C-alpha cells in the first residue's frame, strides 16, 4: 500500500488523484471518478469533491493509497 502524506486537514478526491500521481491532469482524474474506476474505503465513489481525511484508503487500477 502506498502512503500519501498530506499537510492539510483533508484533500478532495480529484486533487488527491493528481497529488498522488495517479492522474496527470484534473480532467483525467475527473474521468476516472465519473467512470466509476475509483474506490474510497472499499466503495465506488463518483464524487469529485469527496473530502479525504487521514486514514482513508483510495483504490485505483489494482493499487491502494492511504492518506496519512
Automatic annotation (TrEMBL):
InterPro entries: S4_RNA-bd_sf. Transmembrane segments: none annotated. Keywords: RNA-binding. Gene3D superfamilies: RNA-binding S4 domain. It holds the Pfam family S4_2. PROSITE patterns: S4 (PS50889). Coiled coil: none annotated. It comes from the Bacteria. This is RNA-binding S4 domain-containing protein. It comes from Clostridium saudiense. The lineage of its organism: Bacteria, Bacillati, Bacillota, Clostridia, Eubacteriales.
